[in-house]
Amino acid sequence: MRVRLYRYLHSATAPTRSKLTWLDTIEVALVVVGFLAYFLVRGCVVDRTGEALENARWIINLQKSMGIFVEPAINEWALASDLRVQFFNFVYFWLDFPLIVAVGLFFFWKSRFHYTLLRDSLLISGAIALVSYLVFPVAPPRYLPEWGFVDTLEAFSNLSYQAQSMQPFVNPFAAVPSLHVGWALLLAIVVFMATQNWIARVLVVAVLAVQTVAVMATANHYLFDALVGLMVSLGALMAALWLQSAGYPAFRAWVGGRASRLEAQRLRCARTRV
To answer: Minimal CA–CA distance to 218: which of 97, 91, 88, 98?
Structure first.
């Protein structure tokens, strides 16, 4: 039984596999664990409004001292045009997780290596972000109307983060890092690795560019958040690449070796009984 299990794990974790295996059900477990972790973190920070606002004003003061406090101007520029508002609302909402899921499913069927690389990068960066949300809660710009910020999603697209239907899925103080920007970068890098098609490459670079603007145009993130999101996601990508080059091969070598040793042991026992 154990031999068959080890051999199954060895074949099911091959980077070139294309068929579905029972091991793929772990994807469902990972999603469930991710949601549970998010709920736990949200519960820890939801009552820390004062700390979140203080951290937000620290970021604003930091950016002002560096001459890069551009968020009010970007939000105001977006608000000056209904077309821009709707465009950036669309980018922020639809060209984030929905797009990533679509591309991830495509890679799942076409290139399991790139799918796994994208999946691991997302999960690792998400785990780092959860820790950041816990230790450094930050109120997004929309919580600071004294600077003239307007929540464009709530005001123009009827997508309020404070609505009862949205509250179970939202951490109101999860501004740093901005995974909208970080994950757009991961998507661009993995697509560049997977294809030389210039249309696909131009599109993912365009998504990264407009998403970086959208997070500020919609008053959901600061420039600081975007930069931290890029760094967190790059670090996660490095870890995911290590898993591909060393971690997973080591695991497959271990289960393959265990299967061979158990099989040899079984044969020796059979000869002894004879």
So the answer is: 88
